[in-house]
Design a protein that fits this description.
single chain; 273 residues; mainly alpha; ABC transporter transmembrane region fold; 81% helix; flat; ATP binding; ABC-type oligopeptide transporter activity
């Protein structure tokens, strides 16, 4: 197995076999991982309350709009009498948001370690059922390390990132519905910006992922070369070739930096759009 390159800020986290062309993505990986998860109740509670947390902030915008209408419009009754019901509604929304976020974060806090424990126990139990020939051909230390890293990545993707995406999508959907209800003309004017932004993010992530394969290959070669230089028994002839090896290693590092610069530019253009 090649050495695992360090994760860089310009690239998203990848699994240990993402650079292996023989690994096929079937599309039902989420279902398979959830089937191994034994405490789905915490996940369901966190999912529902995450959607509530994404929708409730727009209620504050509605109440703020009513508040501004009272301040700028004609007063049919006293100011205090007009704004008091709105203030109580705002207090109720704030309390509801606080409770939903607290319970949702608590459910996610319980779901995270249970998810990792269930996946690790199932994966390690399946390893015990393999034939002894498998362990003769596979370094067990590297295998356990890769499994632990991949399970951590699955947890970050299917719990943290997925619930954050659910909250953001819910917030976007509720915002669009409210915009169409309260001011549909302006909403229709800005509606084309949604597919434009989505296309920019999808295209940008695709380009960055394409660059990652080049980055991963160069980083792996550099790491292997550095390990060879540090661990190999050196002879006089080998010492004579150290300058050539140093130049080759420096060119490899320069290639890594060029890929990082290109990926950073793609991120800047994507976020700018």
């Amino acid at each position: 197995m090649p050495m695992r390159p360090l994760n860089q800020g310009v690239f998203k986290k990848h699994g240990s076999q993402d650079d292996d062309d023989s690994v096929e993505i079937k599309g039902d990986e989420f279902r398979q991982c959830m089937a191994l998860y034994g405490n789905k109740g915490f996940y369901a509670v966190g999912f529902i309350l995450t959607m509530c947390a994404g929708a409730t902030p727009f209620l504050m915008n509605v109440f703020m709009g009513d508040f501004m209408s009272i301040m700028t419009g004609p007063q049919r009754q006293g100011f205090i009498a007009a704004v008091t019901p709105i203030l109580w509604k705002m207090v109720g929304v704030i309390v509801g948001m606080t409770v939903a976020l607290s319970i949702g974060i608590g459910a996610r806090t319980q779901a995270n370690p249970m998810f990792m424990a269930d996946l690790r126990s199932r994966c390690f139990a399946s390893l015990l059922e393999l034939d002894i020939q498998f362990y003769d051909d596979t370094p067990t230390g590297v295998l356990i390390s890769r499994l632990s890293e991949d399970i951590t990545l699955i947890r970050e993707t299917y719990i943290d990132a997925f619930l954050q995406a659910v909250q953001s999508l819910t917030q976007a959907a509720v915002g669009m519905v409210l915009a169409l209800v309260y001011c549909w003309r302006i909403a229709l004017m800005v509606l084309p910006a949604i597919p434009l932004s989505a296309g920019a993010f999808v295209l940008g992530d695709y380009m960055v992922d394409t660059m990652w394969y080049s980055f991963n290959e160069t980083q792996t070669e550099n790491a292997a070369q550095a390990e060879e230089v540090l661990t190999q028994f050196r002879t006089v002839k080998a010492f004579d070739g150290e300058l050539v090896e140093a130049e080759r290693y420096e060119r490899g590092l320069e290639g890594v930096r060029r890929v990082e610069y290109r990926a950073a530019w793609v991120h800047a253009m994507k976020d700018g759009i």
